[in-house]
């Protein structure tokens, strides 16, 4: 940081001294999230009836082709149930990278909030086809026993 002290403020951005040890991001103690929430758009929703299951799907495809989804459950789900879900995903969603379903600690079980997450990379796939494949996969998941443990799925 000594170089920073000897530099004119206007030229600091040209210096090559920045690294992960001397840059810090954080929120001030007076940050009021309520000032920003009116600018957030609500997600779109496929209702339980549209999905044909006991859960709804909240979705925002803004970041397509790179999406994540979170499966929010009413109770803990374990590795064998996750593997059932993964089989359906890989059979229904074609030509797409699908990461393993894991919790935040990369374990194949739901976390303390009963959630698991995955990443989808649709690459050059057709957007409308990809949307149909996602919905089809989740409809099939709704028909297996673990589908009864799912409260909602968030795709964004």
Describe it:
There is one protein chain. It is built from four helices and six strands, in the order H-E-H-E-E-H-E-E-H-E. It is an alpha+beta fold. A six-stranded mixed beta sheet has the order 1-2-6-3-5-4. The longest helix has 15 residues. The chain is globular, with a radius of gyration of 21 Å. The relative contact order is 0.21.
Short account of what is shown:
The protein is α+β, with helices and mostly antiparallel strands and 156 residues long. The protein is 24% helix and 19% strand.
Set down the secondary structure blueprint.
Blueprint: H1 2-5, E1 44-46, H2 48-51, E2 56-59, E3 66-73, H3 79-92, E4 97-98, E5 115-121, H4 127-141, E6 150-155
Parallel strand pairs: 2-6
Antiparallel strand pairs: 1-2, 3-5, 3-6, 4-5
Helix pairs in contact: 3-4
Features:
single chain, 4 helices, globular, alpha+beta, six-stranded mixed sheet, 156 residues
Strand content: 15-25%
Helix content: 10-25%
Distance between the termini: 39 Å
Cα radius of gyration in angstroms: 21 Å
Low-confidence stretches: none
- The coarse overall form would be globular
Structural class call reads alpha+beta
Helical stretch tally: 4
Mean pLDDT comes to: 86
Largest sheet: 6 strands, mixed
Give the number of DSSP strands. Answer: 6
What is the string of SSEs from the N terminus onward?
HEHEEHEEHE
Strand order of the largest sheet: 1-2-6-3-5-4
């Amino acid at each position: 940081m000594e170089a920073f002290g000897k530099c004119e403020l206007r030229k600091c951005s040209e210096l090559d001294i920045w690294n992960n040890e001397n840059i810090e991001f954080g929120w001030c103690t007076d940050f009021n999230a309520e000032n920003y929430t009116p600018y957030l758009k609500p997600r779109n929703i496929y209702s339980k009836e549209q999905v044909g299951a006991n859960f709804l799907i909240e979705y925002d495809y803004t970041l397509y082709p790179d999406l994540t989804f979170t499966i929010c459950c009413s109770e803990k789900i374990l590795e064998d149930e996750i593997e059932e879900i993964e089989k359906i995903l890989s059979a229904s969603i074609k030509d797409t990278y699908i990461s393993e379903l894991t919790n935040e600690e990369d374990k194949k079980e739901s976390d303390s909030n009963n959630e698991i997450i995955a990443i989808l990379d649709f690459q050059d796939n057709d957007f409308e086809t990809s949307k149909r494949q996602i919905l089809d996969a989740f409809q099939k998941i709704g028909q297996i026993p673990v589908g009864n443990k799912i409260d909602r799925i968030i795709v964004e």
